[in-house]
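Milestone M4 deliverable, item 7.
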Amino acid sequence: MLGLGSGLASGVYTREPILLGTYTSDFASGTDSWGGFGINVGTQTLTANQSVGGVDGALKITYDADEDVTFGLELATPWTEDFEVGDSWEATFKFYSADEDPEDGGNISLSFQAGIAYSATRRLTGYVLDGAWKTVTGDVTVISAGSDSDKMRFYFASQANAAGVGDSWYLKDVIIKHYR
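Output delivered:
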């Protein structure tokens, strides 16, 4: 007997995820082609290279109306592979709100999603902007993909805590990694 199998282990092969692409913001140089989505009442204005709260090189986002639908910022992914079911993404970003609208109690609730999978458990959400810079880090597995599978979005899912007339918030150091 050759002893085949006597030293072999059996089990499930687990493959490490493959990094397909990374997006790193550079708001000191421009808006990185981020734009509005769901803006149907007023105007969303993006201003690059802003300083606030002791931090330079931020993207400032302001509104001149209260929107009545889900709205926010959107960017087409800078890599060639769209998000697919089973893919995952990691996100790290900083954001800040000057929140000039006392009607919402001084809080704005922001969500982030990539490879748009509309599920409360498949996005980073509920982070409150309260006049101080916040750093957010998380990772999510894409559970559905469709017409927006090539998008990354920051948005307000709740009208009760959305930015509105006179509100501004800031975004900086956004890093998104796409894995398969």
